[in-house]
Amino acid sequence: MIMKKLAIFDFDGTLFDSVDDVVVCFNRTLAIYGFPTLTRDEYIPCLGGNIDDIVSKVLGENNTPQNLEKVKKTYLDFYNDSKKELTIPFDFAHDLLKTLKENDMLLAINSNRLNYSLNEFVSKFFSDIDFVSIEGHDLINPSKPDPFGVKKIMNKANAASDETVYIGDSITDIKTAQNAGIDCVIVRWGYGDENAFAHEYPLEVIDDFSQLYEIFGINYF
Q: What is the set of domains in the chain, with CATH numbers?
């Protein structure tokens, strides 16, 4: 059991299963420009960074500044115009957040997803959850694993490093927590890999949402 005041959650792969909409929109974009399309499994290792990082990895050997910019613009146009019906919260994510809040935990989200997109999904699915802060990527300030967003959240929540825990699914999340000087918990149900699961830094690597109740000392079931 850990005693914390503030829980900061990653978004993609931690609270939301979002990769399938990404696959559809990226493959549509790549096909337009004659670049090879990728499978779902091939996209997953590309995730975790900001939009430029992701496009760069998706393009692979075709990554040039010109290709990156045109693919990014077209992808974002397709993604923003899509209904994004394949992006949904993981089972029990909402119940977890609600229960943590009822037990006086401060909640926040820190993501490399662009701010407007992040707020769109939070408003749609978690409108009844009171987050102390939601920090996405704004293209001006540094993205994860830089601790900029985490530090901003901690300041707003008036939470010290030893009062804060980061919950994510990837190496990027581990490095973000390390750079911020806070503890982290890594989940296996998202888009992480063995590099994250075997890393020595996380307090815990968990398989199921129910384990988070145990970690926070909440008798839910």
A: 6-17+87-215 (3.40.50.1000), 19-81 (1.10.150)
